Amino acid sequence: MAKKSIAAVDVAGRRVLMRVDFNVPLDEDLRVTDDLRVRMALPSIRSVIDRGGRLILISHLGRPEPGQDNSRESLRPAADVLAKLLGRSVSFATDTVGADAVARVAALQDGEVLMLENLRFSKGEKKGDPEFAARLAAFADIYCNDAFGTCHRMDASMVAVPQAMAGRPRVVGFLVEKEIRYLSDALARPQRPFIAILGGKKVSDKIRVIRNLLAICDRVLIGGAMAYTFSLAAGGRVGNSFVEPERVDLARELIAAGGDKLVVPLDTHCGDAFSSECRRQVIPAGQIPDGFQGLDIGPETAAAYASLVSQAKTVVWNGPMGVFEMPPFDQGTRTVAQAIADSAAVSIIGGGDSAAAIQQLGFSDRVSHVSTGGGASLAMLEGEKFAAVELLDEA
């Protein structure tokens, strides 16, 4: 799946259209509250401008409705943050393919950066409209995809634009290149033992992931609220825990298909309310009394999972083990995260809540890779192929 990198293309004097993921959170005063996604794109951005390329950045932000007042979802705050991080001016177009964008693209000089307004202000973006894509494609000599978080989508900027630029270089940025290397290549050729840890709320969200990983992993460890659906499927009592009754038969099928590969919790840390101040108890899995709900894996499970992680050569983690935002029900997630951080294994944290947990716990610099794309990383773990990546130039 290796794709040609932006580093392999001569960009001097050429216009580079780079799709980034600047879907950053904004506060009430329209200030960026977390600039991680901007900072993650800096290596690709600097690679272009430091080599004399003319860089045009495109991204979406939020879920605006085309034709309405979307001023609160403008990309201008992201452009301001980028300018500060780069220590140079960043030109900003007030539209995407309109008169202002056309004029600013024409005026762009070597080593300069231009950001176009939110792609989703145009209805053509979400519809994958070829005409909208052709107008974007006309701006550039080179296309670069550095937006892993949207690689699983069929939006115009992800698929129709590179299609319209056939015959011109179509490459990956450093961020997407790294995501592919870990999430695709490492899964295809894992060092063993290969352990997957899956948490989160719903079995339905992880069905395809569980099935795919059971086929390639040595062990799949289950945690989070979806463990209670598995517990119910095994004939256990789950009290007031969250379950998906309509997925019990599926969970039973997965237990049968997984055999020894599928590992479920041994004990549960539960409470009589969804609160850190509730009455708490640790009990064997499948024996949660009425009036109590499971909120975390228990210490015996956490220790068992940590032991398996310590023996692994490859670890993939997607989904917390419990309500990690609410002590003391963060202990299961903390123990597993600590084990991953201490492990010598290739460790891949699959975006979303897992990425938030590993960062919140202070272990993000002690793992091999933290994915920037929650939905995209999940889709890749499911074995899905991305059109947005497939059509790019081979390395």
Characterization of the model:
This protein is an alpha/beta fold. It folds into two domains: 6-177, Phosphoglycerate kinase, N-terminal domain (Rossmann fold, 3-Layer(aba) Sandwich), CATH 3.40.50.1260; 192-344, Phosphoglycerate kinase, N-terminal domain (Rossmann fold). Helices cover 38% and strands 16% of the residues. It contains 15 helices and 17 strands. The strands form four sheets. Strands 3-4-2-1-5-6 form a six-stranded parallel beta sheet, with helices on both faces. Strand 3, helix 3 (99-107) and strand 4 (113-115) form a beta-alpha-beta unit. Helix 8 runs parallel beside helix 10 (248-258). The radius of gyration is 23 Å and the shape is elongated. The model has no long low-confidence stretch (mean pLDDT 94).
Structure characteristics:
six-stranded parallel beta sheet, elongated, 17 strands, 395 residues, alpha/beta, single chain
Number of strands: 17
| CATH homologous superfamily grouping of the largest domain | Phosphoglycerate kinase, N-terminal domain
Low-confidence sequence ranges: none
Percentage of β-strand residues: 15-25%
**Architecture (CATH level 2) name of the largest domain:** 3-Layer(aba) Sandwich
- What is the CATH level 1 assignment of the largest domain? Alpha Beta
Ends apart, CA distance between termini: 9 Å
| Largest sheet, spatial ordering of strands | 3-4-2-1-5-6
Mean pLDDT across the residues is 94
| SS element count, helices | 15
Q: What number of structural domains do the residues give?
A: 2
What is the CATH third-level topology name of the largest domain?
Rossmann fold
Helix percent band: 25-40%
The coarse silhouette is: elongated
Instruction: Report on the biggest sheet.
Output: 6 strands, parallel
Backbone CA Rg: 23 Å
Structural class: alpha/beta
